[in-house]
Design a protein that fits this description.
Layout lengths: L21 E10 L2 E11 L4 E5 L6 H8 L7 E6 L2 E2 L5 H10 L1 E5 L10 H11 L4 H14 L15 H13 L5 E5 L7 H17 L3 E6 L2 H4 L4 E6 L2 E4 L4 E2 L1
Parallel strand pairs: 3-8, 3-9, 6-7, 7-8
Antiparallel strand pairs: 1-2, 1-4, 4-5, 9-10, 10-11
Length: 244
């Protein structure tokens, strides 16, 4: 799918372009006098990994935060399974972030006071799943990523590579439709970088989870199905050669 079309027509109720999982059109976002996005567009299909590349300050992280419902754009629309995220109240968008969307950041974002098992189970607990059931599922996820040995340790007691795999386990525990990853390997050495990226590729290949991957590293973007660049707040799909 291309990220084409600078204009932002009103979305048709209940429709997404060509059955696309998530589609954004004409996104604009400013922080005070600084324009972060200017008429940016984006599409992603189920089970697809898309790398979002750009220089520091180009707007790529702002784009990801808008697509994930963390930040509301000033203009444009974002359709997720036919629903406009921009028109949703914060409570509904928060619900999507707990169920349909997973997030993986460079810092990991683990709660230091909780064990790695408790961190992994946290999204399930927030969704009302009982502790025993949530932690059983969390342990299975940690085992699948090769870090079951960290279950009783706290984040400060594990290595950087282990901590990022625990963060990935937490991001995937709800089996999200889309995983948003913002520079997930930026703090890792080359060995752990490759390990985490292979795990992300495996996630895509095993199921229908889509991955939006923000990175400035060409070797990381090479794992994706296609690349979109962000420059001066606008997007370009390199596969299609179309600007948005």
């Amino acid at each position: 799918m291309s990220a084409a079309g600078a204009a932002a027509p009103s979305p048709a109720a209940g429709e997404s372009p060509g059955g696309t999982l998530l589609a954004a059109r004409g996104l604009a976002k400013s922080f005070g006098p600084t324009t972060a996005l200017h008429s940016a567009s984006f599409d992603i299909d189920p089970g697809e990994m898309v790398a979002v590349m750009g220089a520091s300050g180009s707007g790529k992280s702002t784009l990801l935060h808008c697509l994930g419902g963390i930040v509301r754009p000033d203009r444009g629309f974002i359709l997720y399974q036919g629903r406009d995220l921009c028109a949703m109240p914060e409570s509904a968008r928060s619900g999507l972030r707990r169920s349909d969307f997973g997030f993986l950041f460079q810092s990991g974002g683990l709660v230091p006071e909780l064990t790695c098992l408790e961190n992994t189970a946290l999204p399930l607990r927030l969704n009302g799943v009982g502790r025993r059931s949530a932690e059983a599922r969390a342990l299975e996820r940690l085992e699948s990523l090769g870090v079951a040995g960290t279950a009783r340790q706290r984040p400060g007691e594990v290595s950087g590579g282990e901590g990022q795999r625990v963060s990935l386990a937490r991001a995937l525990i709800t089996e999200p439709a889309i995983l948003f990853a913002d520079e997930p390997t930026g703090a890792l050495d080359s060995l752990n970088e490759e390990r985490v990226m292979r795990l992300l590729v495996d996630v895509v290949q095993r199921g229908s989870t889509a991955v939006v991957l923000v990175t400035h590293e060409a070797r990381v973007a090479a794992y994706a199905d296609r690349e979109i660049t962000v420059r001066d707040g606008m997007t370009r799909d390199l596969a299609a050669g179309a600007a948005g």
